[in-house]
Amino acid sequence: MTRSKLLLLLAIAVVVAAFIGFDGHKLLTLENLQANQSALAQWIEQNLLIAVVGYAAVYVVVTALSLPGATIMTLAGGAFLGNFYGLIAVSIASTLGASLAFLVARFLMRDTLRKRYAETVAKMDRGISKDGAFYLATLRLVPVFPFFLINLAMGLTAMKLRTYALVSWIAMLPGTFVFVNAGTQLGQIQSTSDIVSADLLLSFALLGLFPLIAKFVVGFIRRRKVYAGWQKPESFDYNLLVIGGGSAGLVSAYIAAAVKAKVGMIEKHKLGGDCLNTGCVPSKALIRSAKAADTMRHANRYGLESVPVKGSFKNIMNRVQEVIAKVEPHDSPERYSKLGVDCISGEASFVSPWELEVRHNDGRTERLTARSIIVATGGKPAMPPIPGLAEMEPLNSDNLWELQEQPERLLVLGGGPIGSELAHAFARLGSQVIQVEMGDRLLAKEDSDVSELIKTQFENDGIDLRLEHAAREFAIEEGEKVVYCEHKGERVRIAFDQVLVAVGRAPNTKGLGLENIGIETLRNGTVPVEDDMSLRYPNVFACGDVAGPYQFTHAAAHQAWYAAVNGLFGQFKRFRVDYRVMPWVTFTSPEVARVGLSEAEAQAQGVAYEITRYGLDDLDRAIAESEDYGFIKILTPPGKDKILGVVVVGSHAGEILAEFTLAMKHGLGLNKILGTIHPYPTWNESAKYAAGEWKRAHAPEGILKLLEKLHGWRRGKSPTVPANRIKVTER
Ligand SMILES: Cc1cc2nc3c(=O)[nH]c(=O)nc-3n(C[C@H](O)[C@H](O)[C@H](O)COP(=O)(O)OP(=O)(O)OC[C@H]3O[C@@H](n4cnc5c(N)ncnc54)[C@H](O)[C@@H]3O)c2cc1C
User: Fold this and answer.
1) Which are the contacts of 528, defined by CB distance < 8 A and separation ≥ 6?
2) How far, in Å, is the centroid of ligand 1 from the Cα of 274?
């Protein structure tokens, strides 16, 4: 606890002690007030200003410190100031007091709670930022919720002070009026419970429903308002139309067909989108060839003769195409047609929130209507505006797969996942790879220890890694392609044969006619989706790379479920997309697989964590395969086995991660992983050993020492083995 917090706590304790010490709680009683009513009234008449200021000050202190007596103070307001001035004085003082209590609770507790229960607090904050004012109004209107508890609880949320004070002030007015008015009849009140009869409580409860009804009505009007000026068709061609037949579009269409909706999927190029045709599938096929080349080059590791890698790049690329062709039936129009999806080939653009114009490849156009429309148009490689780059005929993840000759010197621009995967594959296949990255490390979204390990491996595999190099200009000099980079204030010249640009991806929104329906893209080019995946109109949705924030096939599929289900059944219930457990893998060698928080993210979000590490050099299976390098790093809250995040760097990292992902998703802690039988010798055993490392670090030392003594005593000897040598996990 910080000094300022301690000081504040101390000050509060002093005031509370003084209040109790001077019998404040006994002074602020109905009997006392009634007994002294006429004397007090007389004094107030003579000292009006002091009385009003003093009254307000005491009221603020009582409510700010959640001391008993606020009800009596309110009655006193009515008794001495009358209905009008009493209401004004009490409502202002109670709002001030409530706001101070709110601020005190926030200052003392919010950070601690945020650190300990980051997820819960984040969830609460999301709810508060959306509907907090409505909830607060309901709580304030119904007098069964204690005043001080609302102040303290709201202080722990992210609600803005201004909103809190304003909503509190307005919503407390009816209750304040009842009590102030009762105060004007002070002589007739026997007890404070007389003021609020059962009927009155019921009326307040009904009044409390008002904000919730208002919330529903506001939402309804807001949803309807966006349609103003549009003529909704009376009937529709489809329940759902999906634009784009990549990962997101295919899953959306699949779900709609599975629940017997009439669904059309419009694709302008090839079903399967990036993942099948230019992304995941071809890149993984290429990486496999690269791995085979690496194994041949280092066959001596396995007692065989290492051989220089000879082969035809053309054959490698032919194999890549064969792999695509083999996977293609999963995403084919034939399969989807059989499932009940109308596969429409052409380019779609919006005419209205329910209508699309489709330009078919043969030049025909037609208009189609649907109750709901999903935008799943994906993205394309971004091209940075570097002078001279276009003249280099750069490669990117779209055109790379047509390459028939292997570049001798390949310049890879970009140190993110795609750039790193491809740089490593080409290096292992024998190209001389120069990888240029503006930042100071590769895979900047991962922790620096991860980047460091990958850097070492890349350098071992012969990649000429140029970190902190910003490409500024491309040129052809004496027939040779060159790039000039800025590196720590110096101009560095790098010669190459071909350049592969992998500096990020730009969402596909051009030509979609989003402007026709008033949808603007965000600064990063993605469309602005709500958490139900809708876009401005409750019947228009987006998912996949065009929506962000992730650019993975499984993220696209995950979002597609929400878009399709909300698109088809959103009138009855809307599901909010949940990204809490989003795993991903970068397929370098070693692989990098992550789920949940990284160390850097935990620090940035102020989440308290502990680190458990397990080195894969200890794993028998890794040793048997001569792949005994890499690590598992797990983040847990201090003293708890709950998993906050995991990164695995090593062979089969993607597969090892699956167990942690499942555990996180279903709230299983490390103890549960440790208590699960894992077959020997598997890569996945490493998850259990990592959990064992956590257990070892949290062994109950005191109990172990006692046990040591007990065992010694049972042997008739004093203990000789130090407790820390006792292994908690078996292997
Ligand atoms: C080299 C590379 C490797 C990758 N590796 C992985 C990986 O290992 N794992 C992973 O999870 N992700 C990987 N990804 C990312 C993954 O490919 C994407 O996240 C995923 O394909 C996104 O799916 P999508 O449906 O949003 O978009 P896309 O797959 O791009 O599909 C969009 C489709 O919409 C069509 N379209 C666009 N506009 C229109 C229009 N107006 N009318 C009709 N059709 C239209 C396009 O032709 C396209 O077919 C990789 C990407 C690349 C480039």
Assistant:
1) 519, 520, 521, 522, 535, 536
2) 4
DSSP 395: B
pLDDT of residue 197: 66
Q: Residue whose CA is closest, atom 47 of ligand 1?
A: 269
**Which contacts of 293-302 are long-range, i.e. CB under 8 A and separated by 24 or more positions?**
293/428, 293/429, 293/430, 294/428, 294/461, 294/589, 297/428, 301/626, 302/626
Rounded CA gap, 98 and 110, in Å?
17
Q: Which residue has the higher pLDDT, 418 or 729?
A: 418
Please spell the DSSP secondary structure of 33-72, one letter per residue. Answer: HHHTHHHHHHHHHHTHHHHHHHHHHHHHHHHHTT-TTHHH
Strand partners, 373: 241, 540
Q: 689-702, pLDDT tens digit by residue?
A: 999 999 999 988 89
- The residue ranking higher by pLDDT, 219 or 617, is 617
Query: Closest residue (by CA) to atom 30 of ligand 1?
Result: 378
Atom of ligand 1 nearest to the CA of 400: 1
Q: Is the peptide bond before 549 cis (omega within 30 degrees of 0)?
A: yes
Whether 248 lines ligand 1, by a CB cut-off of 6 Å, is yes
Distance from residue 506's CA to the centre of ligand 1 (Å): 11
Range with the largest mean pLDDT of 112-121, 168-177, 650-659:
650-659
pTM, two decimals, is 0.79
Question: How far does residue 391's CA lie from ligand 1's centre (Å)?
Answer: 26
User: Which amino acid residue places its CA nearest to atom 5 of ligand 1?
Assistant: 280
